[in-house]
Amino acid sequence: MSHIGFLFDLDGTLVNSKPAVERAWIKLAQEAQIPLEKMVGLHGIPAEQSLRMLLEDRSEDEIKSWVDRIEYLESSDTDGVVAIPGAKTLLNELNTRSIPWTIVTSCTIPLAISRVKAAGIEMPDHSVTFNDVKLGKPHPEPFILGAKRIGLEPNQCWVIEDAPAGVKSGKSAGCTVAAVLTSHLKEQLDEADHFLNHLDELLPLAFN
User: Fold this and answer.
1) Which residue in 77, 85, 83, 82 sits closest to 20, CA to CA?
2) Positive or negative, the Cα torsion across 192, 194, 199, 202?
3) What is the pLDDT of residues 100-156, one digit of tens each?
4) 110 to each of 75, 78, 85, 118, how far by Cα in Å?
5) For this structure, is 9 an active site residue?
6) Is the alpha carbon torsion for 111, 47, 21, 124 positive or negative?
7) Which of 49, 107, 108, 123 is deepest in the core (most CB within 10 A)?
8) SS3 breakdown of the chain: % helix, strand, coil, rounded to 5?
């Protein structure tokens, strides 16, 4: 079998956390007085980077306090967080076949752990979170690090993503990108190399 590995985004790719995410960000928007329409298009971008854009006119101390607040709101609300259909089967198959994979997420470590726990998904020790990088998605750094952590070059890796920022990150890193159509339309993910309606389509595509 050719040397190939898989780098999975978390939210919207392996885990459906949309209701919890929306509840947390709506609450934060009300508390921080951020107009809700400004939140559009931020899916897949790390919370801290999003808040720095949304609150660019606020002080550093205030921004940091809202970063802590959103982490608390998101980590403490896992109601309705479940695995995406096919995610557990796919990861089990990769493990059985000793195919390298890891998670590359814009979540911080505590948030990622709370989400995988709620969904009943394994989080590898060499996962990449926002705590591991200087620049989060859409910058290529997260996926370059992810490839390195599973012992492969980026061009040997498939990135599985659901958000435009993640697709851009994976492509910029030099990976093959398969976009799973859980949260965005094909037209919004047009930089991807492949499109998946279901995770069970991935392995036949990658190893055809």
Assistant:
1) 77
2) negative
3) 999 999 999 999 999 999 999 999 999 999 999 999 999 999 999 999 999 999 999
4) 7, 12, 24, 12
5) yes
6) negative
7) 107
8) 50, 15, 40
Q: How far apart are the first and last CA of the chain?
A: 11
Domain boundary, last residue among 28, 47, 76: 76
Contacts of 118 (CB under 8 A, 6+ apart): 15, 17, 78, 81, 82
Q: What is the DSSP letter of 122?
A: -
User: What is the sign, positive or negative, of the torsion defined by CA atoms of 166, 169, 172, 178?
Assistant: negative
pLDDT at 161: 98
Number of domains in the chain: 2
Q: What's the one-letter identity of residue 128?
A: V
User: Does residue 11 have an active-site annotation?
Assistant: yes
State whether 69 and 140 are in the same domain.
Answer: no
Exposed / middle / buried, residue 36 (Cβ in 10 Å: 0-12, 13-18, 19+):
exposed
Range of the domain at 56: 18-76
Whether 148 and 99 map to the same domain: the answer is: yes
- CA–CA separation, 131 vs 72, rounded Å? 15
9, 77, 132, 162: the catalytic one is 9
